[in-house]
Amino acid sequence: MDRIHEELTKAKTVAIAGHIKPDGDCMGSCLGLYNYILKKYPDVEVDVFAEAIPPAFEFMKGTDKLILNYEGRERYDLFFSLDCGDLDRLGKADKHFKRAGRTICIDHHISNKGFADINYIRPEISSTSEYVYELIDTSYVDIPIAECLYVGIVHDTGVFQYSCTSSRTMAVAGELMDKGIDYPRLVDESYYEKHMVQNRLMGYCLLNCQLKLDDKVVMALLPKSVLDEYGGVASDLEGIVAVLRHTKGIEVAVFIYELNEGRYKVSLRSSGKVDVSVISVEFGGGGHKMAAGYSVKCDIHKATEKLLSMIEEQLRGQD
Ligand code: 5GP
Ligand code: MN
Questions:
Q1: Centre of ligand 1 from the C-alpha of residue 159, in Å
Q2: Buried-exposed string 67-104: b where 16+ CB fall within 10 A, e elsewhere
Q3: CA end-to-end span of the chain, whole Å?
Q4: Is the same domain home to 58 and 113?
Q5: Residues 195-206: pLDDT tens digits?
Q6: Which of 161, 177, 192 is the last residue of a domain?
Q7: pLDDT attached to residue 318
Q8: What is the pLDDT of residues 144-181, one digit of tens each?
């Protein structure tokens, strides 16, 4: 906290960015920190960059100020990379990172090697949003900041359910609740609520998923033609892999969708025995032990066979 405070008191211009294809924790941590800096350091000029604004997070204060075309200033005194495991995942914000006077990384991805000048990387913390709360002066946390951070924590913990949830996560969430946020509405509207296109795509995946490796793996593949047929977009697929993982008896859930001709996004979730971050790193991606992903441009059947053999190898090592 002291180091961040010191850098913020020296900086006149600050940029904040998270990873491409932003999720709840990415949006929550970026906008939580953005609103905090505006409040505690009113003389600092802050820009926040994002690739998109998923509709579920439009309620967060500051979404109307997000710079979606990555233009911003020529150079920032200070750059915060949040919830982003490597420089590639900063997307077009990497140019601001490279030109910045000083860079700070705050993250909880186990695959993060520490690519900034100052690195706060704690894989045991549930979410970057929880970590941001630990690093700021919490007396400045008002309702809009608390809403951003709470929703970020909710999304990365699957509503306080995944094993990344610690007693400290619950304590932080409690402190955020005490700021006066409408937490049932936030959870409903940002996490559980799905529109019909999302429901139908979920239905397609549940109807067409297959069991592999003696029923230890459940796998669903969504072709681009199906996504287009239902009028969906990639962000509509959030949450499908988490539902697949609820299948009784499975160790790994695999959800694959076609991004465009020949390029596939793979999402992996583990029930505990398999470290899916190791597998994702092997394919050029990253993530956490229990939730990770990557994208591949190749023959998806061959890539799937390789993936299954890597899962099998880890499962064999457990017996
Ligand atoms: P999801 O499967 O929900 O897209 O992502 C699960 C986790 O894996 C997230 O923490 C996310 O940051 C990470 N992840 C997903 N895809 C990629 C990828 O292509 N590269 C890297 N480095 N991490 C990824
Ligand atoms: Mn995260």
A1: 18
A2: beebebeeebbbbbbbbbbbbebbbebbebbeebebbb
A3: 44
A4: yes
A5: 999 999 999 999
A6: 192
A7: 77
A8: 999 999 999 999 999 999 999 999 999 999 999 999 99
Quote the domain boundaries for residue 245. 196-318
Distance in Å, CA 127 to ligand 2 centroid: 5
Residue 317 CB partners (closer than 8 Å, separation 6+): none
Contacts of residue 161, Cβ cutoff 8 Å, sequence gap at least 6:
none
Ligand 2 centroid – CA 229 distance (Å): 31
| Residues 103, 240 within the same domain | no
- Domain endpoint, select from 138, 159, 192: 192
pLDDT band at 260 (very low <50, low <70, confident <90, very high): confident
**What's the gap in Å between 105 CA and the centre of ligand 2?**
13
The ligand with the least distance to the CA atom of 164 is 2
Tell whether 214 and 157 lie within a shared domain. Answer: no
Residues in the chain, how many?
319
Considering only 152-156, 217-221, 296-300, which range has the smallest mean pLDDT?
296-300
Do residues 68 and 53 touch, judged by C-beta distance below 8 A? yes
Domain tally, the chain: 2
Q: What is the pLDDT of residues 127-148, one digit of tens each?
A: 999 999 999 999 999 999 999 9
Ligand 1 proximity of 288 Cβ (cutoff 6 Å) = yes
How many angstroms is it from 19 CA to the middle of ligand 1?
9
- Judgement on whether residues 253 and 217 belong to the same structural domain of the protein: yes
Residue bearing the CA closest to ligand 1, atom 6: 292
Ligand nearest to the CA of 254: 1
User: Does the beta carbon of 291 sit less than 6 angstroms from any atom of ligand 1?
Assistant: yes
Nearest residue by C-alpha to atom 8 in ligand 1: 292
